Amino acid sequence: MQKIVNRLKRIEGQVRGIQKMVEEDRYCVDILVQISAIQSALKQVGFSITERHINHCVSDAIKQGEGQETIAELMSVLKQFSK
Amino acid sequence: MQKIVNRLKRIEGQVRGIQKMVEEDRYCVDILVQISAIQSALKQVGFSITERHINHCVSDAIKQGEGQETIAELMSVLKQFSK
Amino acid sequence: MQKIVNRLKRIEGQVRGIQKMVEEDRYCVDILVQISAIQSALKQVGFSITERHINHCVSDAIKQGEGQETIAELMSVLKQFSK
Amino acid sequence: MQKIVNRLKRIEGQVRGIQKMVEEDRYCVDILVQISAIQSALKQVGFSITERHINHCVSDAIKQGEGQETIAELMSVLKQFSK
């Protein structure tokens, strides 16, 4: 998980960078390109956590014959995530 | 633009909050819900900046009969943004 | 699966409706609203099939201790889907 | 616009192809890959129509000093589109 924390620290820095760009009244398109870079990075973090979740919680629940609820919960988070 | 800077500060705090959740080994689904909240917030910031950009730079270029290049640039950033 | 086929038939009809709107030179914004309705409908179909896939193939593989490859494949399709 | 109609005809055919895949009970992941291909294609059509809209309606409104309402409408359709 340290890898994920490190990626989140980098994302935090990128968000701070955008604040500075906005305050310095930098060109809108350059700011938008940075925002879309953060969104890609966040999505990657989301996928890593989703994969981890499926490999652990979801897999364990399925092995114990209790997958249904966990899978429904997973689907609901995937739907929210893809909005 | 102060409103946008404030929103970015809130997003920065949310990213830090997720780092903590990951370090404390909180439930993956709760982390994913938080990440998708940040993505929505970032998207809103992106839209505000896009609207501002269209209202200023793009409109000015169009009025001066030089819209073509600016619109092409806008489309390219919208495409990247929607990935 | 009949429910999914029916939804796909409705989507097919919606796509045909958009062709007509384009040919009749209807207002762009109205066409875009229709396209985004189709995208929502397709996304719903995608989620239904994903859920079905997790409930069957992925669950079976996990129960047989062979989840790893199937989960990797699932993640890769989720990533492509969210682009 | 004929180019856009042709692309929509291809998309219509792809949707029909997915119906067949579902009826033949083809592998879920293969179906999902096809659905995500249609979504990409639809997105491209959406971008073409958006660009056309900005180059014509939005530009005309801006030139006549009446951009505000048209830009607000554009933003609202972009938001819906990115859901």
UniProtKB/TrEMBL annotation, chains A, B, C, D:
UniProt name for this protein: Metal-sensing transcriptional repressor
Pfam families, sorted: Trns_repr_metal (PF02583)
Gene3D superfamilies to which the protein is assigned, alphabetical: Metal-sensitive repressor, helix protomer
